[in-house]
Amino acid sequence: MNESVHSLTLSALFPLIKDKQISPAWLTEQTLRRIESLEPGLRAFIRVLPEEAMEQARTLEAEAVQGYIRGPLHGIPVAVKDVLQTGGIPTTAGSKVLEHWIPDQDATAVARLKQAGAIVIGKANLHEFAMGATTENPHYGTTRNPWDRDKIAGGSSGGSAAALAAGMCFGALGTDTAGSIRLPSALCGTVGLKPTYGAVSRFGCVPFSWSLDHVGPMARTVEDTAILFESISGFDPKDAASSRRPLAPDPIGKREDLKGFRLGLCREYFFEGMHPEIAGIVDRAMERLQSLGAEIREISIPGLSEAQGAARIIAQSEGYSFHKPMLQHASGQYSEDVRFRLEFGRQVSADDYLQAQKFRRKFIASTAAAMASVDALISPMNHNPPFPIGSVSPEQAIHNMFRLAKAPLANFLGFPALSVPCGFVEDRLPVGLQLIGKPFDDRKLLLIGDVYERSESWSERLARHISELL
Predict the structure, then answer these.
(1) What pLDDT score does 392 carry?
(2) Which domains does the chain have, with CATH numbers?
């Protein structure tokens, strides 16, 4: 069992724990050994937590022996992006500025995972302050893509995605301000959900842009991602943006087809600038969705070019606002590419910011109208393969997310967005498919992704990769 356990999904592990075939302590020990064998080569973690994890595991094991199982996450080791607070444990946000900061409480999403029985195995690496698409971190090391260690893992939640793809955890938390959950998921062959804005609490997350930030789940399969999502979603009075609106119920339950579902295809923006091989892979994915019974309709969304500019204005100006006090006394501790981003934000005027937010409200309404006849939008997730580590200069790094993917608009809208594997470039580098749903239709989005995923063999290929990685 110890040779193959690392490639199992969390949904496959749960019955083994429930039936006492394996114990939380044994699984945690095996996961820690796996991390020790692969780190620091991949640099997926900033901090591994062996003592804390084993303490959690022993508590959960005692509960299991007594017949008390908290749920499908009971005894499952997970990684937490190091931009999310962990009480009594340093939270660096991938920076030197916060290197010695020890929060006194967990972020809400972290606390909810623990309450559900998940074991926090470590704090995952990230692009400094979550402000980048590569996780090339000058302070804690560059996270390497487990499929090709010379390539980036994507960012900013690169450590979370790499840890999953290397079998060093079975679920993870990331954050997404412009694609930071979805892009590394696509580049590492895993699954990531950016929930509806307000569906998952952001309390305890070091902010990048408070009106664009999202906390969300990452896993190896859509089913596992859904399990994590159910554990962390829900109203939180500690987050001013948290919504009391309930999620739309699962529309049908587990299905084998997509008959009756309509998917919108907007070629403008979403399909522009694609790598030719990725274009072919996405075309085949759409054909598969149609073979499963989904209807694909071409739609038009007005204001796309203006939305891109407005999203950048909002993200960078809100980022500068948060960092301004720290820049005044610790600017030398910021990396060059992050300082470049913050300088862009410093130059944004109040009028520019207010006009961007005003346009945003109109764009959300017009996009909702354009999507009225469909259940979700479909598009490529990553438009280009991961590029070599160190190949992009700091002053060019601000454009990385736009070159690698067309992800930020889902944050601008606040609509849920899912990345699910759909193939491989050059038969070795993963490619992701993106689904964007309507507000609070997160479960419907996961249902569509689950039906598609189970019709393909991508999760099995990831499992084989994990087994062969050592």
Answers:
(1) 81
(2) 5-303+355-468 (3.90.1300.10)
